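User: Before I run my own analysis I want an independent prediction to cross-check against. Here's the chain; please return only the structure tokens and, at the end, one sentence I can use as a sanity check.
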Amino acid sequence: MKEQKIAVLGCGLWGRNIVRNFYNLNALGMVCDLDDDNLAKVREQYPNVKTTKDFHDILNSDEITGVVVVTPSHTHFKFVKAMLEAGKHVYVEKPISTVAQEARDLTDLADKKGLVLMVGHLLLYHPAVNRLKMLVEEGALGDIVYAQSDRLNINYFKNDRSVMWDLAPHDVSMISYVLGKNPESVISAIGCSSDRNDIMDITHIGIKMEGGAVAHITDSWITPKKHVQLLVRGTKKTAILDDTVPEHKLTIYDNFKAGSSENIQLDYLEIEPLKLECQHFISCCENGKKARSDGENGFIVVSILEEAEKIMLGDRAKNLDKVDFALSRTKK
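Assistant: Structure tokens:
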């Protein structure tokens, strides 16, 4: 079994967490970033790790077997395509792209070359989410009729097409995974821009799932008090997963008995979900297995969000193609 050496492309706010995890897993081979300050921090913390400002150094390295792309979403297609063509396994942060056809093309390319393509749908590796999925599969909630995911926080930079593209990949992928059903179509999609432009910083989308359940998703960049919660309603019971609390994250309520609640015991909650996700990528690279959050999963999510954007903005969505988004999430 060949030893896996992973390169990380992009080591900003989120990328540095991925760098830390692959380093701790003894798999980090190289880090690439355009920002001198970011690379200086990597060299200070991990003096034996190679650093570069040129992503071609990753492409041309025989040592590097896999690459994690942690760059802004509008750059994903270019970088992922180049890495796959160079024969590298790829783990790309969500969304895989902001264009469904690009996501399809990347998935097909990975399949053609026999490479792993994994999308950073982090919550599919969260112990609480996986426990909730088990409850749904066991029928503990009854037949699922409704799911609601709220992901509200503050973002001062807004370097993306909208909050929907930034956060909703988590919600769509998580609901689909927990229910074991793919999204079928967008029922409704509305948004608001507090800056009065076409970049929506709060969005609400309604989705019809396979089997008839309805999902509602709300995402916000303008909420000073963080609120992250998933509700899943069955014909018997309702589950609420609150990821902002340190314990009792998952609670079950009887639909027909007031004041009844049950805190669900969770295993492995002390393990960082990102570590589990990074371990999964290494395992897939070693064994040649498809990732839990593979390219097909990424394509399905992007297709739904693309449809929602068209409903939300109509022809104005084309204006976002002309915006020169920054290459950093924390710079204008």
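Sanity check: The radius of gyration is 20 Å.
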